[in-house]
Amino acid sequence: MLRRMILICVAAMALIAAGSTAQAGSTAQVGSISGSGAGLEDSNVTWEKLRTFGVPPSARSMPATASVGKHLYVFGGVYDSFATGQNTFLNDLYRLDTETRRWTLVPSRVAPEPRAWAAAAASERSFVVFGGSQYNSEGTVFKAFDDLWAFDTTRQRWEQIRPVNPGPSGRSGSTAWTAGGKLYIFGGVDATLSALNDLWAYDFPQNTWTQLIENGDPSAPSPRHVAMAGTHAVMGKLTLYGGEGVSGSSFPVLDDTWQYDITTNTWAEITPQAGNPDPPHNYGAAGLIGTRLYLHGGDIPGGEADCGAPYPQNPTDHIWSFDLTTHTWRQHQAVGPPARLKRHTAAVIAGKMYITGGYDFQCAGGVGPGQIWNLDTYVLTP
C-alpha cells in the first residue's frame, strides 16, 4: 500500500524535463497588470523579466527560497525528468544581489542533504531551511527530513541546528514563517504520505521546539502540504492559502484561507463567502507585500496529459492578492502578460516579489514542446 501511495505522490510531484535555454544578461521586459475586484478600487502591478548577470540556478522545481536583506537565496529543489525516469535532487545554494542583479553560486564545504519541498524563512541574518524530501521514480522510497539548518549570511556557511528537545516529525511541503525570534512550521506530509495539520514553534535563543497545535486538531486548517504563504507575521498573525490534502489515493486541491493568531494560539478561517481564486490554484508562488498576500501562477484544473506527461498539466499566469485587513481577494488582469509557471518559488525584497524556478507546460492538441523549464528571474511590483 505504501509503495502505491508513493507512486501516486511521485507522479503528483514529478516534472517533465524538456528543458528551455535562458541566458544571463537577457533584456528586461516589463508589462503592466491591472486588476479590479468587487468593492475594491482598481490597482496596478508591474511584471518585469530581469536582466540578470552571473550564473542563475539551473532548472529545478520546488527549491527553498527566502530573502535576507537585499539578497534572494535559493536552495536545492529537484530536476525530475519523465524522459529519463530519474530524479536529481539538489543541495546547491544560489544568491541574487537585487541591487546588482548578479547571481552567485555560494560555495560551502558543509550543506544539507539534497532535497526538494523544504520549508524556508529568514531569521535576522540567517537563511533557515527545515525538512523536505527525496523519493525515487519507482515509488519504493520516500524520505522525509526532520533536520533544521541555517545559512549564516555573515560568515557565509551552513550550520545544522540541533535543538535540545524533539521537534516536528520528518515532513515534506510544510509551511514556514518567522516572527518574534521563532520559526513556525505548519503541516506537510510525513514519510507515510499522511498529511499533517500540527503547528510547531522553534525558539532560536532557547534552542527548543514547542508544539502549539496538535496534529488532528479540528480547529486548525485541515491536513495539507504545499500551502501558499509569506514567510513572516503581519499584525501578529500568520496567513496561508490553499495547498493540497491527501484523501486515500487522491490529492484534493484546497481553496480556503486561514490566519493563526500568535498571541492567542488560535487558528481562524477567513475564507470570504465570495470572490475566492476561481478555480483554486496550487503549486504557485507567494509573497507578502505590505498587508497583501500575493499569489502568482500555479496549476489549475484542466490541461493536457500528452507530450510525456502522465497526468494533466495546466500552469497559469494568474495573479491574485489577499487583503489581510479586509479579508478579500482580488484578481489582477494582465495587460502585459506575466509568465505561466508552476512549482516555482518567490520571496519579497524592498516591496518587490522576486520569482524563480518552476516550469511552464505547452501541449496544445498533443503537440509539444511539453515542459519548459524556467531559468529566468521575474519581479512583481504593486
SSE topology:
Elements: H1 2-13, E1 29-37, E2 40-49, E3 53-54, E4 64-68, E5 71-81, E6 86-97, E7 102-105, E8 119-123, E9 126-130, E10 133-135, E11 142-144, E12 148-152, E13 157-161, E14 175-179, E15 182-189, E16 195-203, E17 208-213, E18 228-229, E19 237-244, E20 253-261, E21 266-269, E22 285-289, E23 292-296, E24 299-304, E25 313-315, E26 319-323, E27 328-334, E28 345-349, E29 352-356, E30 359-362, E31 370-373, E32 378-381
Parallel strand pairs: 3-7
Antiparallel strand pairs: 1-2, 1-27, 2-32, 4-5, 5-6, 6-7, 8-9, 9-12, 10-11, 12-13, 14-15, 15-16, 16-17, 18-19, 19-20, 20-21, 22-23, 23-26, 24-25, 26-27, 28-29, 29-32, 30-31
The rough form would be described as globular
Helix content: under 10%
Strand arrangement across the biggest beta sheet: 22-23-26-27-1-2-32-29-28
Low-confidence runs:
1-5, 10-42
Q: Number of folding domains?
A: 1
Q: In terms of structural class, how would the helical and strand content be classed?
A: mainly beta
Biggest beta sheet attributes: 9 strands, antiparallel
What top-tier CATH class fits best?
Mainly Beta
Q: What is the CATH homology-level superfamily? A: Kelch-type beta propeller
